[in-house]
């Protein structure tokens, strides 16, 4: 069973690699960032709340995020594995996830930590374009779509995320160092964590993941 967490700083390539890994293993890709963006697009009360934090580069409160993930992981499509992208991001979320895993008998058994130098993150975020329809990320230099402005996967329109500006990115990186980086030790101590070099070509990263996930 592949119950996986994919972690890393903003722009490390979580979304990009999560799509490839989840489709390879045929497991659902659960991105809290995508869930919040969908709620914002639909103007729901969750979306309004999440937008207050996301627009400033801050983390959405733990109780809201934990409730959302607990409900999602309880869905029948997670019975044969799942890939979490962007959750957990705080120690409180990680501890809650341990409890949820036991409760629903779907404990995390692999944590993949994408490592990328900070200078590359800024370049990646500023050049990123995302599909409005399916959320697939592209890049104006390193991962160009076949047709400019159009998603290769679903034909949707590509746009730049509102939180992909220099000021908000600074705050997102602060939040990462303060709240999320401590999870590296948390999962290393549980003997679940492996690092991935996120500066390699995507096929090489997937091969490495396959090696690490071999049971
Ligand atoms: P979220 O959507 O999770 O954003 P993030 O963590 O800041 O990560 P990004 O989506 O910016 O980057 P990524 O690592 O997915 O990189 P990507 O694959 O796109 O969260 C957004 C916000 O929601 C948060 O700030 C927070 O407010 C809130 N939130 C979400 N989860 C939360 C939680 N658990 N608790 C509280 N709040 C939460 O890649 C970046 C670019 O690089 C792309 O253009 C891509 O094409 C390119 N690229 C990637 N890999 C490669 C490669 N190997 N070679 C060349 N180019 C590459």
Give the bound compounds: BIS(adenosine)-5'-pentaphosphate
Rg from C-alpha positions? 16 Å
Strand order of the largest sheet: 2-3-1-4-8
Q: Note the overall shape.
A: globular
**Poorly predicted sequence stretches spanning 5 or more consecutive residues:** none
How many strands, which pairing sense, and closed or not: the largest β-sheet? 5 strands, parallel
What is the topological layout?
Blueprint: E1 2-7, H1 14-25, E2 29-31, H2 32-41, H3 45-54, H4 62-73, E3 81-85, H5 91-103, E4 110-115, H6 118-127, E5 128-131, E6 137-139, E7 158-159, H7 166-180, H8 182-189, E8 193-197, H9 202-213
Parallel strand pairs: 1-3, 1-4, 2-3, 4-8
Antiparallel strand pairs: 5-6, 5-7
The structure holds BIS(adenosine)-5'-pentaphosphate.
Q: What do you see in this structure?
A:
- 47% of the residues lie in helices and 16% in strands.
- The protein contains nine helices and eight strands.
- The strands form two sheets. It has a five-stranded parallel beta sheet, with helices on both faces. It has a three-stranded antiparallel beta sheet with strand order 6-5-7.
- Helix 1 crosses helix 9, helix 2 (32-41) packs across helix 3 (45-54) and helix 4 (62-73) runs parallel beside helix 5.
- The structure holds BIS(adenosine)-5'-pentaphosphate.
- BIS(adenosine)-5'-pentaphosphate is lined by residues 8, 10-16, 32-33, 36, 53-54, 57-60, 65, 86-87, 89, 93, 124-125, 128, 137-139, 142-143, 172, 198, 202.
- BIS(adenosine)-5'-pentaphosphate (AP5) is lined by residues 8, 10-16, 32-33, 36, 53-54, 57-60, 65, 86-87, 89, 93, 124-125, 128, 137-139, 142-143, 172, 198, 202.
């Amino acid at each position: 069973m592949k119950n996986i967490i994919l972690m890393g700083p903003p722009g490390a390539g979580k979304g990009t690699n999560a799509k490839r890994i989840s489709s390879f293993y045929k497991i659902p890709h659960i991105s809290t960032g995508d869930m919040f963006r969908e709620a914002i697009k639909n103007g729901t009360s969750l979306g309004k709340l999440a937008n207050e934090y996301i627009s400033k580069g801050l983390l959405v409160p733990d109780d809201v995020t934990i409730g959302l993930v607990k409900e999602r992981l309880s869905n029948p499509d997670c019975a044969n594995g799942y890939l979490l992208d962007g959750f957990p991001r705080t120690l409180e979320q990680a501890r809650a996830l341990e409890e949820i895993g036991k409760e629903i008998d779907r404990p995390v058994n692999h944590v993949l930590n994408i490592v990328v130098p900070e200078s590359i993150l800024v370049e990646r975020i500023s050049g990123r374009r995302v599909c409005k329809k399916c959320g697939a990320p592209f890049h104006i230099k390193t991962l160009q779509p076949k047709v400019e402005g159009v998603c290769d996967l679903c034909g949707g329109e590509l746009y730049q995320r509102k939180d992909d500006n220099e000021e908000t990115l600074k705050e997102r990186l602060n939040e990462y160092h303060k709240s999320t980086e401590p999870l590296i030790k948390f999962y290393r101590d549980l003997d679940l964590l492996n690092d991935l070099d996120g500066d390699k070509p995507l096929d090489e990263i997937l091969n490495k993941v396959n090696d690490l996930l071999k049971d």
